Amino acid sequence: MTIIDGKAFALKLREKIAGAVRDIKSSCNIQPALAVVLVGEDPASQVYVRNKGIATEKAGMRSIEHKLAADASEDDVVSLVKKLNADEEVDGILVQLPLPDHISSERVINEIHPDKDVDGLTEANAGRLILGKTGLVPCTPQGSVMLAKSVRDNLSGLNAVVVGRSILVGKPLAMLLLAENCTVTMAHSRTKNLDEVCREADILCAAVGRPRMVEGRWVKEGATVIDVGINRIEEDGKTRLIGDVDFDSAKERAGAITPVPGGVGPMTIACLLRNTVIAAARRRGLGAVEV
Ligand SMILES: Nc1nc2c(c(=O)[nH]1)N[C@@H](CN(C=O)c1ccc(C(=O)N[C@@H](CCC(=O)O)C(=O)O)cc1)CN2
Questions:
Q1: Residue 99 C-alpha to ligand 1 middle, in angstroms?
Q2: pLDDT for residue 203
Q3: CA 48 to CA 119: how far, in whole Å?
Q4: pLDDT exceeds cutoff 90 at 155
Q5: What is the pLDDT of residues 52-92, one digit of tens each?
Q6: Distance separating alpha carbons of residues 80 and 85, to the nearest angstrom
Q7: Which CATH number fits the domain that encloses residue 175?
């Protein structure tokens, strides 16, 4: 059984991205720039935004942070996004989620210019993904597929089950697996006999946001298990980060499995950097970058 080391994979990817950034700088004197918008003071979001800024600069890109107060209006956020759309120096825009309840994330996200939408969440990029057209792909699903391919380089013809149907992960992940020629089942809270459905999976992806929901006995012998869940729980008097899969029982049956932490999570930021370089190269007419 292989424990898939997402942290190491993400580090390697980030080195490759830094190389691509160096090439762009030396050949065209351009420094790709990523703007991140944070609204409010959610502690986890603050950490993610800080880590994105550090990773962006480490890759040699420019990081721009905009922090708005929790009571900023929807119109304030939309006008900031419009300003960033119009800024020629900005290649990528990301609005950290979740937004405060009084702000419609759907409206804000769809104000982002699709070519700068490095989260791949606009309707335009979601449509491109479904149609198999070139766009920007959501980071966590992209990272999940990269990890699955790191242990089985040809996914063609395999049965993939995605548990969870969120816009951020479940739906785009299913599309990406379909693009790899998997036979994809999208399962969710209303799926009947969920355990049986999961046991059919050669690639089992859990993205439901429910701690340890997927039990070991749901895993087909030898399956690749991709755990997208990041749940903070109190256990034995400590705060722990655990996935949607019961790791200890699942690893007894899986052929390969991602841990939490250290699995899919680190790939989210690495794929964000990748999307930023790709967006910069496309916007500025530099041709395709291999990352
Ligand atoms: N606009 C977006 N908002 C959010 C996204 C997103 O992709 N775009 N995803 C999540 C949060 N997120 C990035 O924003 C994110 C989550 C987890 C990790 C990560 O590296 N996790 C580590 C553990 C970190 C820890 O100790 O807390 C791991 O799993 O090993 C990076 C980024 C919601 N919002």
A1: 14
A2: 98
A3: 14
A4: yes
A5: 999 999 999 999 999 999 999 999 999 999 999 999 999 99
A6: 9
A7: 3.40.50.720
Q: 3-state DSSP call for residue 286?
A: coil
Residue 13, both tokens = 């990817």
Give the count of domains, the chain. Answer: 2
Question: For 192-203, how does the pLDDT look when each residue is reduced to its tens digit (9 = 90+)?
Answer: 999 999 999 999
Domain that holds residue 150: 139-266
Q: In the predicted model, what is the mean pLDDT of the chain?
A: 97
Residue 228: name the closest of 146, 158, 125 by CA. 146
Residues 184 and 254 reside in one and the same domain: yes
DSSP letter at 99 equals: P
Output the pLDDT for position 287: 84
Determine whether the annotation assigns residue 166 to a binding site. Answer: yes
Residues with C-beta less than 6 Å from any ligand 1 atom? 48, 94-97, 119, 139-140, 230, 241, 260-262, 265-266, 268-269
- We report the CATH number of the domain holding residue 56 as 3.40.50.10860
Q: Please check whether residue 262 lies inside any domain of the structure.
A: yes
Measured between alpha carbons, how far is 108 from 122 in angstroms, rounded to an integer?
Answer: 9
CA 281/CA 279 separation, integer angstroms = 6
Q: Assess: ipTM above 0.90.
A: yes
pLDDT in tens, 95-117: 999 999 999 999 999 999 999 99
Q: Is residue 118 part of a domain?
A: no
The per-residue b/e assignment along 21-42, b for 16 or more CB within 10 angstroms, e otherwise, is beebeeeeebebbbbbbbbbeb
Q: According to the model, what pLDDT value does residue 12 have? A: 98
Query: In angstroms, rounded to a whole number, what is the distance separating the alpha carbons of residues 134 and 127?
Result: 10
Identify whether residues 171 and 95 lie together within a single domain.
no
